[in-house]
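About this split. The held-out portion is used to measure sequence recovery: a designer receives only the structure tokens and must propose an amino acid at every position. Recovery is the fraction of positions where the proposal matches the reference. Here is one held-out target exactly as it appears in the evaluation file.
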């Protein structure tokens, strides 16, 4: 293990940085998608509800590895063949889109549950004061809902971080893909994967501790 870290430690830490970058970028766009479809799912409009439900059901029903292949290979091929375009996606772009879609479906459910956890009387009171629906949602409902959503969002980030390992199949230089190259060069499979497991464990444990601390503080704030 010492030999691997001395020779490939910098490469592995760089790959961990790439993994975090991919997870953060995916979570950022997932929050945007989740907010859009989460709000659509709570509107008193059946068409909006159906659109949100279709998005969530389709994305959650497709395995992550299939989604990765579809975005990286299928989408450019379809656009180039059918649309006559010249589109190529880098592994980072395809990985971000894939994570954003996959995580976005779960974020939509988190946001929906967060909004519905706010007493309906809050919206009624805001509307009775003359606030339009969207302004009441922005100023009154979402700030309260976010407090309950933060621990779930951090937990979803942990899941997204682990899901980045699947994107090694499209060649993105994240930690698992880099570890495969290290094993190919050193033939030290056991030691390499122990190091990778420890790196993941440290990051995920810190994030899990952060989620628990925030949850305790939010619970005290409600008391």
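Reference sequence for scoring:
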């Amino acid at each position: 293990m010492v030999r691997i870290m001395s020779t490939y430690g910098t490469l592995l830490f760089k790959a961990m940085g790439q993994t975090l970058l991919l997870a953060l970028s995916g979570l950022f766009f997932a929050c945007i998608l989740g907010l859009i479809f989460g709000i659509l799912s709570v509107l008193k409009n059946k068409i909006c509800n159906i659109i949100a439900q279709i998005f969530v059901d389709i994305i959650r029903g497709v395995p992550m590895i299939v989604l990765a292949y579809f975005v990286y290979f299928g989408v450019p091929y379809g656009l180039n063949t059918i649309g006559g375009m010249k589109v190529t996606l880098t592994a980072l772009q395809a990985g971000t889109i894939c994570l954003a879609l996959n995580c976005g479906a779960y974020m939509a459910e988190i946001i929906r549950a967060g909004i519905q956890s706010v007493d309906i009387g809050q919206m009624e009171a805001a509307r009775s004061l003359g606030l339009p629906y969207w302004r009441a949602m922005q100023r009154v409902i979402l700030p309260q809902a976010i407090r309950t959503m933060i621990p779930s969002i951090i937990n979803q980030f942990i899941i997204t971080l682990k899901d980045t390992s699947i994107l090694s199949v499209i060649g993105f230089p994240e930690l698992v893909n880099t570890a495969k190259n290290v094993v190919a060069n050193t033939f030290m499979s056991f030691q390499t994967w122990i190091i990778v497991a420890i790196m993941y464990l440290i990051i995920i444990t810190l994030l899990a501790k952060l989620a628990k601390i925030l949850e305790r503080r939010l619970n005290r704030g409600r008391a």
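Annotator remark: The two ends are 49 Å apart (CA to CA).
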